[in-house]
Design brief:
Strand order of the largest sheet: 3-2-4-1-5-6-7-8
Helix content: 40-55%
Order of helices and strands: HHHHEHEHEHEHEHHEHEEH
Oligomer: single chain
Strand content: 5-15%
CATH topology of the largest domain: Rossmann fold
Distance between the termini: 11 Å
Structural class: alpha/beta
Number of helices: 12
CATH superfamily of the largest domain: P-loop containing nucleotide triphosphate hydrolases
Length: about 290
């Protein structure tokens, strides 16, 4: 992952670290780079303050030392939260939630492929029954991933019943992992969080829910977090999936969103291909950011 530079700070920092000494311009460049990478002002200030203190303490003027300190600081902050996926139940049931447009459906397909690549059997439940296109898109991605799919038996079928049938299928077939797509917006009058609560209750009559993964689009930054706040408050989210990290140097959003929500990042998507979703590893990500 470290060779990917589209979400990396390294381009913005290259000139700064090429200098012969650390001067006041170094700190201004670092602050600009962190802000432009979507770390946010509070985290940027905290990181710069910590690094200034370390540079003073170790009495160094070598930009190479500052680079190493920056990488270590980012890794330490990123590693405060455990990115491990909890998938030991059989079947392990994962609800995938998020507002429409963040790449939720394609993320489920990529996650299915990620799991199949690790030798797991997967069934996907198309419980976003309010959008016919979502069902077809999900089925296509699931088939590409080598996962089976449970579709609604008729248009507008109750999402909770599709979720129930998916878990039931997994139990009958001995499938290891269940991924359930959910609505990001409802066209009916019922509240979205009420609908998700119902899906949870119905699934839990059969099996406990192992993970509730919230998909966020890195390119929307803090706006994306605001849009997803209802899911964070009401859907029992256990992990974040950050998509669209390719395409812009917004890698700082990963740290900002983790610290803002208190929820660990468990998966990151870095491209359009079916294999472009990976587990989140703080030290690899920090190294990739700093270069």
């Amino acid at each position: 992952m470290a060779e990917r530079t589209s979400w990396s700070l390294s381009g913005a920092l290259r000139g700064m670290f090429a200098k012969k000494t650390i001067d006041e311009g170094t700190w201004e460049d670092l602050e600009d780079a962190l802000i432009s990478a979507d770390f946010g002002p509070d985290i940027t200030d905290a990181i710069v303050e910590e690094l200034r203190a370390n540079v003073a303490r170790f009495r160094t003027t070598d930009p190479a030392d500052l680079k190493r300190m920056l990488r270590e600081t980012l890794e330490e902050r990123l590693a405060k939260y455990d990115p491990t996926l909890t998938l030991s139940n059989r079947p392990a049931v994962v609800l995938v939630v998020g507002v429409n447009g963040v790449g939720k459906t394609t993320t489920i397909g990529k996650f299915a492929k990620f799991l199949v690549n690790h030798g797991r059997s997967v069934v996907v439940g198309a419980a976003d029954t309010f959008r016919a296109a979502a069902v077809e898109q999900l089925a296509t991605w699931a088939e590409r991933a080598g996962a089976s799919v449970v579709r609604p038996q008729h248009q507008g079928q109750d999402p909770a019943s599709v979720a129930f049938q998916t878990v039931e299928r997994a139990r009958l077939d001995g499938t290891e992992i269940v991924l359930v797509d959910t609505a990001g917006r409802l066209q009916s009058k019922s509240g979205l969080m009420d609908e998700l609560s119902k899906v949870r209750r119905v699934i839990e009559k059969l099996e406990p829910i192992a993970e509730v993964l919230l998909v966020l689009d890195a390119t929307t930054g803090q706006n994306g977090v605001a849009q997803a706040q209802a899911f964070i408050e009401h859907a029992g989210v256990t992990g974040l999936v950050i998509t669209k990290l390719d395409g812009s140097a917004k890698g700082g959003f990963v740290l900002a969103v983790q610290e803002k929500t208190g929820i660990p990042i468990k998966l990151i998507g870095q491209g359009e291909g079916i294999n472009d979703l990976t587990g989140f590893t703080p030290h690899v990500y920090a190294a990739g950011l700093v270069g």
